[in-house]
Amino acid sequence: MRDSILGLSFEELCEVLKGLNEKPYRAKQIFYELHLGKKLNEMTNIPQTLKAQLLQLYTDDDLTIIKEQKSKDGTRKFLYKLNDNNVVEGVLMKYKFGYTICVSTQVGCRMNCAFCASCMDGLVRNLSAGEIVSQVVKVNKYLGGDIKNRLVTNIVLMGSGEPLDNFDNVVKFIEIITNKDGLNYSDRNISLSTCGLKDKIYKLADLGRQINLCLSLHAPSDNIRKTLMPVSNSYSIDQLLDACKYYSLKTNRRILFEYILIDGINSSRECALQLAKKLSKINCLVNLINYNTVEGKPFKPCSSVVVDNFARILKDYKLQVTTRRSLGKDIDGACGQLRRKFIKTNGEEN
Ligand code: SF4
């Protein structure tokens, strides 16, 4: 299978074109047009011979939107087909400031979090940098956006897969998507969500970028976390919080802690108090998310009273707290659900 041309950094594209005896300005033209969402054969300013040479080396067609679901609340969910017939999904959330796209970084996931639909078939493979870039490019174009008027304003690496488990491709994706000759996103408009691969958090911090880091915490103690997230057998909460403090110090960014509230598991008053004490000295925001039911999983969401009480206790400890709306409840909103349904029905569900 040919690699995706969207997975080339600007510098790599310059090198490829140099090898084909092309002038440097061609790299700017091609990079710009690719990030507008054009295929090589749709570029009217590039010679046919050059397009043919590039298409022998690379594919410009690595991912196709094959399904879209729209929620009553404006959330959209996309199913993308890859060239090897694997499918991954993405979510698009509408906010006052624009659209936020949630991109996938792996087909499946091997982290095996107990509440998640993405990992039910394990890890199939990593996505290439180009396949991750392509999700943003395709959806921005689909919405009618271009480079000067980007309609996808924010990117969260929070779809299926653990981004830090695909570190090199994710870092390359960030490098490409922030390039000034392409879509030119700012680091500050990109968030990366991890279940807590401690060593990779340090590695990310040392890159000197300003990506927002979100840690999926979901428990106030190692005992509870171990029942939900097997990664806790490798790293304790205290070790992860140290890594987060380091990240915040190096990047000057506030850490976002994600906490899914699951009825009877991690939502008690004691859990809230324990969490508040652990986080009280960290520059952070806590995002509480009520659990989104996943078929085949034994967990239940909490009542709104439980969610409000949990938030109030954290606020009493002067923590900044948001309670995320459960977006897209009517469209298999939880991560991995749409893909699972597609696989189970061989793509024949409506
Ligand atoms: S929650 Fe994230 S890290 Fe955990 S299994 Fe699902 S996709 Fe993987």
- Strand/helix succession: EHHHEEEEEEEHEHEHEHHEHEHEH
Strand order of the largest sheet: 3-4-5-6-9-10-11-12-13-14
CATH topology of the largest domain, by name, is TIM Barrel
Mass-distribution shape? elongated
CATH architecture of the largest domain: Alpha-Beta Barrel
CATH class of the largest domain: Alpha Beta
As residue ranges, the low-confidence spans are none
Hetero groups in this structure are:
iron/sulfur cluster
Biggest sheet features: 10 strands, mixed
Strands, count = 14
Structure explained in plain terms:
This protein is of the alpha/beta class. The protein has 2 domains: about 5-60, DNA polymerase, domain 1, CATH 1.10.150.530; about 65-345, Aldolase class I (TIM Barrel), CATH 3.20.20. It is built from 11 helices and 14 strands. The protein has helices spanning about 10-20, 25-35, 50-55, 130-140, 165-175, 200-205, 220-230, 235-250, 270-280, 305-315, 335-345; strands spanning about 5, 60, 65-70, 75-80, 85-95, 100-105, 105-110, 125, 150-155, 190-195, 210-215, 255-260, 285-290, 320-325. Strands 3-4-5-6-9-10-11-12-13-14 form a 10-stranded mixed β-sheet, sandwiched between helices. A two-stranded parallel sheet has the order 1-2. The mean pLDDT is about 90. Bound molecules: iron/sulfur cluster. Iron/sulfur cluster binds near residues 109, 116, 119, 161 and 195. Iron/sulfur cluster binds next to loops.
